[in-house]
Specification:
The structure holds two protein chains of two kinds. Chain A is of the alpha/beta class. Chain A folds into six domains: 60 residues; 102 residues, Beta-Lactamase (2-Layer Sandwich); 71 residues, Signal transduction histidine kinase, dimerisation/phosphotransfer (DHp) domain (Helix Hairpins); 175 residues, Heat Shock Protein 90, CATH 3.30.565; 105 residues, Response regulator (Rossmann fold), CATH 3.40.50.2300; 102 residues, Four Helix Bundle (Hemerythrin (Met), subunit A), CATH 1.20.120. Chain A has 22 helices and 17 strands. In chain A, strands 6, 7, 8, 9, 10, 11 and 12 form a seven-stranded mixed sheet that branches. In chain A, strands 2-1-5-4-3 form a five-stranded antiparallel sheet, with helices on both faces. In chain A, α13 runs antiparallel to α19 and α14 packs parallel to α15. In chain B, α1 packs across α2 and α4 packs across α7. Chain B folds into two domains: 59 residues, no CATH class; 110 residues, Alpha-Beta Complex (H-NOX domain), CATH 3.90.1520. Chain B contains seven helices and four strands, in the order ααααααββαββ. Chain B is an alpha+beta fold. The model of chain B has no long low-confidence stretch (mean pLDDT 90). The chains are: A alpha/beta, B alpha+beta. Chains A and B meet through α1 of A and α2 of B.
């Protein structure tokens, strides 16, 4: 009974559980139905979207296709076997086929020119790997005419990504190809012609040079013969024309060498500082007559020797300096060499040639490096030249691995500049620089700058001539004040200082200079003194002077003292006189030995000194007499001092000596005594004036 | 709690102790469902606790031991009813790891309102797995039975240690070491 009861309960429980399960399932079924319906709606939306996008895609494809067609690009689709699937309008037009005519035909057989089959096949192979590419082919038109096309091909895929063929975009380049061929031919002809022209120029230049050298040589020889003035003039024109022609030809020869690639850079170890010094000195010497001043501004950080083709570098710098000289009649031309960058093995050096000449307009600047083109027509008229110089510079700089450029302003000046990357020499720098310095010192035209403080015209003329002869730069101060001013304004290597000068004497000037300079940079100051008194020399030393040079001095003595206190080794080649040679004899009343020591064989020099003497002596004498007659002792002493070396310069050494005695004693002399002495001088000097004058005409007629 | 736990629990009780015991524990519990369960329904978890406690009293067995036995029983049911979950893994650790990451994710898709225990696993080296059981139902013993049976299912000899991580047993750490 209990068991039945239990069973009943169990059945009841399971019935209820089934019902519950059924109701849960019903709920789930309804949920499923709803979900299904939502899915359907979503699906429909998706299908609509796909349709819309497909249509867009079709439109855009159509759009691009029509763009391509409008651009005269022909479209052609072929399958993998090479059968034409579709040929679009422009392609048909290009090839002369009717619409649909090409479809189904084989591309290679129908259209491709046979020699391009390998190229085409290669291209097709690429497309099979999905690559697009471009090539130039020849195809046949319907009339079997060949046309050039450029083809860009790309694979066509089906909707599951398999390659089913390719599409090519064709552009007719027949015109362009023909033009290209014509151009190639023209270019070839031109190159050949140019080559021939270069060859011609090179050989002609060479051929012309030989007779031209003969013309120049003969012109020189002719000028040594006796000619009248007109003949002389003709000869000058002949000579200058010949050298212009020679320059022109050597420029042309250079250019043709560069063009032919025959010019090679041969770097050697050089001392850039010494070389550029030499160069600038040549220009300084050359242009003594013109007013242009040459300067070298060398960056001393360039302390090592460098590997450089000096010949090429010099050619460039000479060209640039010469060019600047042409356009700088009055002003400064600076060769500036500065270090831009360096490491342990290389210097990057900036070379500049800066002038304060006439400058150029921007338009002229543009043409400046063009072969045979000068800034403007006027230039050739006024300044000459071939218009090749700068072209050569440009090529040479490029050959050395640099680049030349120019900046300029009209009326202000011009700056040509280039940088070179130069290898630093492995050799020990210090040793080499020492060697370089000695090389420098061996040059007569050294880079010395000398300041001369002197008030006596004859002395000035004397020193000026000697220094010019030795190619030594110098400046003249006419009194102590000027000397101090000039010292302040520029850098000098040595000062030659007269002791008695107007405005400020040599002692004071020396003191002021010594005050201005640093402890370590004492400039040698050599006193020029006629005084034999030790006390004067002692005073000079106290004032800070370095040494003495007694007046009157010989060129040799001057050279010696300059050599002693500077690096330069100045030699006066012409002072060595052979007593037995037929050297010029002066009037027996003059001190022949002294004159020979001073002037050697240089009679022009002696002449100019004698002429100067005659020019100044009257005025100097008048001053002397005036001071004596008005009893101005100080002034009288000064004038005696100033005028005394003048006499020795014309061989009147005894007057110089007497004048020295007078100078030393004048302060103690009475008014009358001094006057008497001055009159004695006047008489004595006047006695010699005719002799000096006769010497002048004698020398002139030598 | 999912209905399958109830139907399987009562089936186990019937198989082990007879329907009289099933009837007894139902009648002696205060059940909202009235003791009527279907595997696809959802019922309050306190009902299974009441049924378990009454069973423990009736048969005089430790409720933890009963729950562990039920866990083993339930595992077999799962392998029959949901073979795909077991075929998806070829080793015991892989399977245990897949409970939280995969099986429960699927369960939640079908029964979004289900409250499921968490099994956070971590394999420290190839042979040792740490599993942290977290559930407000505090049925760590059920989990233990399931783990043991899973190791047997994949024929993997093992050593299992268990550590309560809090007093109420809602967080239990199992360390399973392959032998």
């Amino acid at each position: 009974m209990e068991e039945i009861q239990l069973l009943k309960k169990r059945i009841e429980r399971e019935r209820r559980a089934r019902k519950e399960a059924e109701s849960i399932l019903e709920v789930k079924a309804i949920e499923l139905f709803k979900a299904n319906r939502e899915l359907k709606i979503i699906n429909q939306d998706l299908e609509k979207e796909i349709a819309r996008r497909s249509s867009q895609l079709y439109k855009s494809e159509f759009k691009y296709r029509s763009i391509i067609e409008n651009m005269e690009l022909g479209l052609l689709e072929i399958d993998k076997e090479g059968t034409i699937i579709q040929a679009f309008d422009t392609f048909n037009e290009m090839t002369g086929y009717l619409e649909g005519e090409l479809v189904g035909r084989n591309f290679i057989e129908t259209l491709l020119v046979s020699e391009f089959v390998p190229i085409f096949k290669e291209q097709e192979e690429k497309r099979e790997h999905g690559e697009a590419d471009v090539s130039e082919l020849k195809i046949f038109t319907k009339d079997r005419e060949e046309i050039w096309v450029i083809v860009s091909g790309a694979p066509i895929f089906d909707n599951i990504g398999n390659i089913i063929g390719s599409v090519g975009i064709y552009y007719d380049i027949t015109e362009r190809k023909n033009l290209e061929d014509r151009l190639k031919l023209a270019r070839q002809t031109a190159v050949q012609a140019q080559q021939a022209e270069k060859q011609f120029l090179a050989s002609m230049s060479h051929e012309i040079r030989t007779p031209l050298n003969a013309i120049i040589g003969m012109t020189h020889m002719l000028s040594d013969t006796v000619l009248d003035e007109t003949q002389q003039d003709y000869l000058e024109v002949l000579s200058s024309s010949a050298s212009i022609l020679k320059n022109l030809i050597s420029d042309i020869l250079d250019i043709s060498k560069i063009d032919a690639g025959k010019l090679e850079v041969n770097p050697k170890v050089i001392n850039l500082k010494a070389e550029t010094h030499k160069l600038i000195n040549i220009f300084k010497a050359k242009t003594r007559e013109s007013k242009a001043e040459f300067k070298l501004d060398f960056d001393d950080r360039i302390s090592h020797l460098v590997h450089c083709d000096q010949q090429l570098l010099n050619q460039v710098l000479i060209n640039l300096l010469g060019n600047s000289e042409k356009f700088t009649k009055d002003g400064t031309i600076t060769l500036r060499i500065s270090l831009k960058a360096s490491d342990t093995t290389r210097y990057i050096i900036l070379f500049e040639v800066v002038d304060t000449g006439i400058g150029m307009s921007p338009l002229e600047l543009e043409k400046i490096f063009v072969q045979f083109v000068q800034a403007n027509v006027e230039i050739r008229k006024n300044y000459g030249g071939t218009g090749l110089g700068l072209t050569i510079c440009k090529r040479l700089v490029e050959l050395m691995g640099g680049y030349i450029d120019v900046s300029s302003q009209q009326g202000v000046g011009t700056n040509f500049y280039f940088t070179l990357n130069l290898e630093i020499s492995e050799k020990e720098a210090d040793l080499e620089i020492m060697e370089g310095a000695s090389v420098l010192s061996k040059m007569i035209d050294s880079n010395l700058d000398i300041l001369i403080a002197e008030d006596n015209e004859m002395n000035i003329k004397y020193i000026d001539s000697l220094l010019k002869k030795w190619n030594i730069n110098h400046e003249i101060a006419y009194d102590g004040r000027q000397a101090v001013e000039k010292y302040k304004a520029a850098k000098f290597d040595i000062v030659l200082m007269d002791l008695n000068m107007p405005e400020m004497d040599g002692f004071e000037a020396t003191r002021q200079i010594r005050e201005m300079e640093g402890v370590h940079s004492k400039i040698p100051i050599v006193a020029l003194t006629a005084s034999t008194f030790l006390s004067k020399k002692h005073l000079a030393l106290q004032a800070g002077m370095t040494d003495f040079l007694s007046k009157p001095f010989t060129p040799e003595q001057l050279a010696e003292v300059i050599s002693k206190y500077t690096d330069a080794d100045v030699e006066n080649k012409e002072t060595v006189i052979d007593a037995n040679s037929d050297s010029p004899a002066y009037h027996s009343a003059l001190n022949n030995q002294h004159l020979l020591e001073v002037y050697g064989n240089d009679m022009d020099y002696a002449l100019s000194m004698f002429e100067t003497f005659i020019e100044i002596i009257d005025d100097e004498l008048t001053l002397l007499i005036n001071y004596a007659e008005t009893d101005q002792k100080e002034e009288l002493k000064g004038q005696a001092h100033k005028v005394k070396p003048t006499f020795a310069m014309v061989g009147l050494n005894h007057i110089t000596d007497e004048m020295q005695e007078f100078e030393d004693s004048v302060m103690e002399l009475s008014f009358e005594k001094a006057k008497e002495k001055v009159y004695h001088f006047e008489k004595e000097i006047k006695k010699f004036i005719p002799i000096i004058k006769s010497e002048i005409s004698r020398i002139k007629n030598l | 709690m999912k209905g399958i736990v109830f139907t399987e629990f009562l089936e186990m009780v019937e198989n082990e102790f007879g329907y009289e015991v099933v009837d007894y524990i139902i009648d002696n519990s205060d059940l909202e469902s009235g003791g009527v369960y279907t595997s696809i329904g959802t019922y309050h978890h306190s009902e299974v606790v009441q049924l378990l406690m009454n069973l423990s009293e009736k048969v005089e067995m430790d409720p933890g031991a009963l729950l562990k036995t039920f866990g083993k029983y339930l595992f077999d049911t799962f392998t029959r009813a949901y073979p795909m979950f077991f075929e998806a893994e070829d080793n015991a650790f892989g399977f245990l790891d897949s409970i939280d990451r995969h099986i429960h994710v699927e369960v939640l898709k079908l029964y979004p309102d289900a409250t499921l225990p968490r099994f956070e696993t971590q394999v420290s080296d190839d042979d040792v797995m740490t599993m942290i059981y977290k559930s407000e139902r505090k049925m760590g013993a059920l989990a233990e039975g399931l783990i043991e049976k899973a190791m047997e299912y994949y024929n993997t000899p093992y050593i299992l240690s268990k550590e309560l991580m809090n007093e109420d047993g809602s967080m239990v750490k199992f360390v399973i070491e392959k032998k």
